[in-house]
Write a structure and sequence with these properties.
Length: 453
């Protein structure tokens, strides 16, 4: 990162990050006020928010346990994130937000057939579970509003009770679990330092727990300014080492994109991130950009200053992922990567496959989606190459190659459609691009808020 001399420099990372956060905070505040107006009679949380991802042998649930909203979200961090943009009951300061967590877990387990056994075959072939005592095993991803190990969202005594309830249920029903816990790296460090991970070890082991943490970008400018993550790389590395010391086989979220990047740069950054993470021996959750309402990328998209890459760009991402081969001695999953962001909750207003400015035809976009899913669920490793080559050939035969517009760059008022693979364009440095994009976003904010539903 090119550090400027003064924090008042409009191109300094701190100034740019503050602007990213201010815009995101304003967007989110309006969104939350709208939610409150519509859901003013919402009762306290009796159910977690649940949605599903395809996994081996069926779908598995992703569960957001509801309590207090993610504090990073409230502060305007993590610009593309809408994970915490959910309706919530009016805040009652006298009400303890935590007992409802156990009600939500009990509700989840009471609906076991509906949420687990009717949706997946319970086999998880190729998975190397640490403890397997029964024939059937089910996986789920579990977070608080953002971070399972956040004391603010789920206090330690509730974390323990939640894990115990899963374990007891499994024993009673004759099923094993594979729990993926999402957490902020800083929260995991605290859990390690406080001795909590030691105390939880008798539960983590039989529940086959792994942890997932957001890193987003290896590049500091992209992570700290454009994504506004507020995550020091050393903290992230400490959390990885803690997770590995406890055998929690960490998975890491890596974000493929950014509102200042060209598709080619985005791919380069994915390659850089993967090289960094491969050396650390971790699973990767590659998150594709999408358009979530009331986020900075969506605002910029709405005024033609940002675009999602064309679906064919996924081929470049897949090529990188197929070469990704970390050494993971405690690996539970047979593959090393997952790709998310095509489906999400809250539902995005556009994804790479279906956003309104896409040029690729829908049948081809859907074919691509199938390639991604087949590779991902097939383990996503080199042995898939033959199948991949066949699919890719079939795809290329029928598609012309004029498909790679830049991320939104306004040139003389027109949205740039040049092919980034074939033409070298003089591009501004990232801080200048960020400054330009944020200036446009600040000017357009009020209009966007009036028109976005
Ligand atoms: S990425 Fe995670 S920490 Fe950041 S705002 Fe979203 S939920 Fe919160």
């Amino acid at each position: 990162m090119n550090a400027p001399l003064s924090a008042k420099d409009p191109l300094s990372p701190d100034t740019l990050k503050d602007r990213v956060k201010t815009i995101s905070r304003q967007l989110r505040q309006v969104q939350m006020r709208r939610h409150q107006a519509v859901h003013h009679d919402m009762p306290s949380f009796a159910r977690a928010d649940i949605y599903f991802e395809p996994g081996p042998g069926g779908d598995y649930p992703i569960v957001a346990l509801r309590s207090l909203p993610c504090s990073y979200f409230q502060r305007g961090n993590c610009a593309p994130c809408a994970y915490s943009a959910r309706p919530r009951p009016p805040q009652d300061k006298n009400q303890d937000p935590y007992p409802g967590l156990l009600t939500q877990v009990d509700d989840l387990l009471a609906r076991f057939d509906d949420l687990f056994s009717r949706r997946a075959d319970g086999r998880l072939p190729g998975y190397r579970l640490r403890q397997r005592k029964h024939d059937r095993v089910y996986m789920l991803q579990l977070a608080g509003e953002s971070s399972f190990f956040s004391d603010r969202e789920i206090p330690p005594e509730y974390r323990r009770e939640i894990l115990e309830r899963f374990l007891h249920f499994g024993k009673r029903q004759g099923v094993d679990w594979h729990l993926m816990l999402e957490t902020r790296p800083e929260d995991l460090i605290k859990a390690a330092q406080s001795g909590e991970l030691d105390r939880l070890q008798p539960l983590l082991e039989p529940l086959n727990v792994v942890v997932n943490m957001g890193f987003e970008h290896e590049n500091d400018f992209l992570r700290q300014v454009i994504f506004a993550k507020d995550l020091d790389k050393n903290d992230f590395l400490q959390a990885l080492s803690d997770a590995q010391a406890y055998g929690l086989d960490p998975g890491v979220f890596l974000f493929a994109g950014g509102f200042i990047l060209t598709p080619q740069e985005a791919l380069q950054q994915v390659a850089q991130g993967l090289a960094f993470l491969e050396a650390k021996g971790v699973f990767v959750n590659l998150m594709l950009p999408n358009l979530q309402a009331f986020t900075l990328p969506d605002l910029l998209y709405s005024v033609g200053h940002y675009n999602l890459p064309e679906p064919q760009w996924l081929m470049g991402v897949l090529n990188l992922l197929l070469d990704y081969a970390p050494h993971r001695p405690d690996a539970i999953t047979p593959g090393h990567w997952f790709m998310g962001g095509l489906v999400a909750e809250p539902m995005p207003v556009g994804s790479i496959i279906d956003h309104p400015r896409r040029k690729c035809s829908m049948p081809h976009a859907i074919k691509l989606l199938k390639i991604v899913r087949d590779l991902m669920l097939g383990g996503g490793w080199k042995s898939c190459d033959q199948q991949y080559a066949q699919l890719l050939n079939g795809f290329n035969d029928t598609e012309n190659d004029d498909f790679m517009p830049f991320h939104g760059r306004l040139e003389d008022g027109a949205f740039c459609q040049r092919n980034s693979w074939q033409k070298e364009m003089p591009l501004q440095a990232w801080p200048q691009r960020a400054h330009q994009a944020l200036t446009i976003a600040e000017k357009q904010l009020k209009i966007y808020l009036k028109t976005r539903h």
